[in-house]
Each structure stands twice: as structure tokens, then as C-alpha cells.
Design a protein that fits this description.
The protein is mainly alpha-helical. It has a domain of 111 residues: Arc Repressor Mutant, subunit A, CATH 1.10.10. Helix content is 52%, strand content 4%. It contains nine helices and two strands; from the N terminus they run ααααααααββα. A two-stranded antiparallel sheet has the order 1-2.
């Protein structure tokens, strides 16, 4: 027979109100944009996928050339106004001014990005600044990621043999 002392030794006493978990931001604050750059620079920040930055040299059509520096910077400038999933709107004259190049240079880069299938221009019905749809680029990057994962899986299978 179990005595009340033996029974109480087997009981784990949980506090009525357990302490709250540490804030999720406690650890992540070390990695915040403000900590990595500066609070002032973090006020206006653009999120660019690392996969794009690390693999931009692979964005080329079959047998074609890599994107040139101007095309890459135009792409990044257009991305800088992509603050939601909605297609960004920016005047190419603004992009040209930010880059210190001619409007013609920016227009040519956008035509190239469209022609290569990385962007889709959506003209404004009222003659204002166009929108730029990044869906084609996103789909190409995700297809590259899938191919990379398949290749890594195939490599793992080869090592087993």
C-alpha cells in the first residue's frame, strides 16, 4: 500500500501560472537590420532573397549571357519599392536618377529583363508609372531551387551506392 508521503513524492507540482516564455525577439534582436547596419539605415530597408543574390549569375537563358551590372541594379531598384506582394510602381526616370544613368539606359535594361522573362510590365491605365510584376522571376528562382534540391538529393543517392 502506498502512503501519502510516497504518493506526494511522485507528484510533480506545477506552478499555477508558469513564467511566460522569453520574448521571441530577444534572440532575433541580435540579427536585426538595425543591429547589423544601423537604426537609421534600418528605417528604409529592402528585403532581397539571398538565393537571388547568390545565384544571380545563373539567371541566363539557354546559351545566353548573364545579366549585366546595369540590369542587376535596375532589378534591385524595382525591388526596392516592392513593399508588399502587390506589384511595385515606380517611374523609370526615378530609377535612372537614383542610378545616375540615362532614362534610355534604364528603359533598355527593363526591356531586356522583360525579354528574358524575369519581369512583366503592367502599364498604368491612366498614363502613370508602370507596375512591375516579379512573378516570372520568383517562379524561375523557385524552379532553380527545386533543381538544386533534386541535384543534392541525387548526389546523396550516389554516395549511398
Amino acid at each position: 500500500m502506498t502512503t501519502s508521503n510516497e504518493a506526494s513524492e511522485n507528484v510533480i507540482d506545477f506552478p499555477a501560472n508558469p513564467p511566460p516564455p522569453p520574448p521571441a525577439r530577444a534572440r532575433s534582436s541580435e540579427f536585426s537590420v538595425a543591429r547589423r547596419w544601423s537604426p537609421r539605415l534600418a528605417e528604409k530597408f529592402t528585403a532581397i532573397p539571398n538565393y537571388l543574390l547568390h545565384n544571380i549569375h545563373r539567371l541566363r537563358p539557354e546559351g545566353g549571357r548573364c545579366l549585366n551590372g546595369t540590369e542587376i541594379v535596375v532589378l534591385l531598384q524595382l525591388a526596392s519599392v516592392r513593399v508588399s506582394a502587390r506589384s511595385p510602381r515606380i517611374a523609370l526616370t526615378t530609377v535612372a536618377k537614383r542610378m545616375g544613368v540615362s532614362n534610355r539606359t534604364v528603359r533598355q535594361a527593363v526591356r531586356t529583363l522583360e525579354g528574358l522573362g524575369y519581369l512583366r510590365r503592367i502599364p498604368d491605365a491612366h498614363g502613370g508609372a508602370n507596375r512591375y510584376d516579379f512573378t516570372p522571376l520568383i517562379e524561375k528562382l523557385e524552379a532553380m531551387m527545386d533543381a538544386d534540391a533534386d541535384a543534392a538529393e541525387a548526389d546523396d543517392d550516389d554516395e549511398v551506392l
